[in-house]
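To fix ideas at the outset, we first show an illustrative case, written as a sequence plus integers encoding its fold:
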Amino acid sequence: MFDRESKKPKDVEAWLLGMKKFFDLHDYIVNMKGRIDIFSLKGKASIGWKDMKRVRGIKIEELSWHDFKRLLRKKYLS
């Protein structure tokens, strides 16, 4: 789970690496990975995602793992 409580860039990258390892073990279709990422958000990260989705008009059913990583990095690592 990712909750955004830590402001350290290495924690964001560590969470993304953990999700990549999880996806390497499972054979999910591309857009299912984005949905699982969203499910793995909690607390402030979940609220932040809800706001970002609304503002950017993101369609969850079209969200890929690559797009999710890019959005998360832009939000927390820029």
